Amino acid sequence: MSTGAELLYFVASIFFILGIRGLTSAETSRRGVVFAEIGMIAAVVGTLVNPEIVSYRWILVSAGIGSAIGIAMSALIPMTKMPERIALSHAFGGLAAALVGVSEYSLYHADLHDHVVLSHGTMAALGFEVLFGGLTFTGSLIAFGKLQGVVPGRNITYPYQNQSNITTFALAVTILVLLTIWPYAQFLFYLMFFVALILGVLFVIPIGGADMPVVISLLNSYAGLAASATGFALGNNVLIIAGALDGASGFILSVVMSRAMNRSFANVLFGAFGQGSGSTQTVTAAGVTVREASVGDAAMLLSSGTKVIVCPGYGMAVAQAQHAVQEMAELLEKDGIEVKYAIHPVAGRMPGHMNVLLAEANVPYDSLKELEAINDEFAEADVALVVGANDVVNPAAKHDTSSPIYGMPVLNADLAKACIVLKRSMNPGFAGIENELFTMPNTVLVFGDAKDTLEKINQALG
Predict the structure, then answer these.
(1) Residue 152, SS3?
(2) Positive or negative, the Cα torsion across 175, 133, 356, 85?
(3) 307: closest CA among 461, 458, 418, 394?
(4) What is d(CA 351, CA 419) in angstroms, rounded to the nearest whole number?
């Protein structure tokens, strides 16, 4: 590799680290994205100036196809569908890593690599790359299907599911070990790739509900680890560093989110969230008594106090109601009413989902408060406005030991003097459990599309 390429890789690595550092804060996140983009440009240019490249024809074709897919994803998938977009990106990342591994392995069996011995260490890196790349590919596709509604979003379980998953994973690892010992056993290599593809499906299909943000983050970690292994296999330092940063950050975020839900990693991966037979699940939607309010009632409640806390959820994203929320906040603030936003760590379908949507609507960063920072303020709030959120405002998590979400920190919307919930219907949330907040005496529900409802509330407030 040339000195110029090494220098560009060094520059890219620095900007990747600066990018990760910038993304740790909402105020510096835009700068972090720019740094990461500069790092990626430096890495690509460093790769293209590599003297080992004998032809640019297929590189240009691949770059053209990849750019077309990226542009189409950006143009056709709205920001409200960002979790789906991220899941697809992880799928492509995992597939790319796996295919590079397959290609590299096949070269060692071709004339091109006759003079190069496939060492045990290189084989271990290639195997790890293909194993985690294949797992990430199919797992991310299943996650995309669940988020998109193509695959049932609830957890899908069957007898001895965890045992079969562990056995399948152990089989994949065993094959990897055997390959490391006998690197030229092609049958084992492709068998491991096939098992990895199956493992991705088995891993994600039983996970549903509020665990999906953790799964998305974990798949991000797997994609990073596969990329890092690719770097070891190809002797590419920038891939090693970038993949390690991606894998480590995704893993740390997964752990943080699991803690935010007061659940262990093992419980997320094997707990079959939402499957339990808690008392809340036996209550049908038709049997729940709620107090329905009109748009006028909601507007009057909102304008009669001095402090409103908005609790956004995935329903806000589906309705694309973030701009209407921001307009409502402006109208209330003109009348001297304080408006804050309570952001639950797992609200939406991926980490930071609500922050991104509200930032898109130009909601000031200072108004966005994390759960720990705002939960004590609900008791002094006149109104808690729940926009399309379910599980993250369910009081059952605080006291109902039979609830599947018992122990998960939730927003204290039930402690506000009044609570307005915007919902399409009485159907339970993504976790598949009923929400006792909806039947509390200080809660009223306004049914309908959240964006349409908020626009009517804004008209009433104006």
Answers:
(1) coil
(2) negative
(3) 418
(4) 25
Task: For residues 25 and 381, give the distance between their C-alpha atoms in angstroms, rounded to a whole number.
Answer: 27
Instruction: Give the predicted TM-score (pTM) of the model.
Output: 0.73
Of 376, 391, 414, 449, the catalytic one is 391
List the alpha helices (DSSP H) in 345-389. 353-360, 371-374
Phi, psi of 432 (to 5 degrees): 80, 20
| CB contact at 8 A, 420 and 461 | no
Q: Where are the beta strands (DSSP E) in 68-128?
A: none
How many whole angstroms from its chain centre is CA 203?
A: 16
Q: 351: left (phi > 0), else alpha (psi -120 to 50), else beta? A: beta
- Alpha-carbon distance of 387 to 323, in angstroms, equals 12
Query: ∠ at Cα 272 (89, 434), nearest 5°?
Result: 100
Tokens 């053209």 locate to 64
Walk across the sheet containing 368-370 and list its strands.
368-370, 338-343, 307-312, 383-387, 418-423, 443-447
Would residue 335 show up in a list of annotated catalytic residues for this protein? no
Name 38's Cβ contacts closer than 8 Å, sequence gap at least 6: 15
Per residue of the chain (462 residues), give pLDDT as tens. 678 888 999 999 999 999 988 887 777 888 989 999 999 999 999 888 887 788 888 889 988 998 998 888 888 877 767 778 888 888 998 999 899 999 888 888 776 555 677 888 889 999 999 999 999 999 999 988 888 778 876 677 788 888 888 899 999 999 999 999 998 888 999 999 999 999 999 988 887 666 777 788 888 888 888 888 888 888 888 888 888 888 888 888 888 777 766 666 666 666 555 444 333 333 445 466 778 888 888 998 898 889 999 999 888 888 888 999 999 999 999 989 999 999 988 777 676 778 888 888 888 888 888 888 999 999 999 999 999 888 889 898 888 887 777 788 899 999 999 999 998 877 666 556 778 888 888 899 998 888 999 999 999 887
Q: How far apart are CA 433 and CA 435, in angstroms?
A: 7
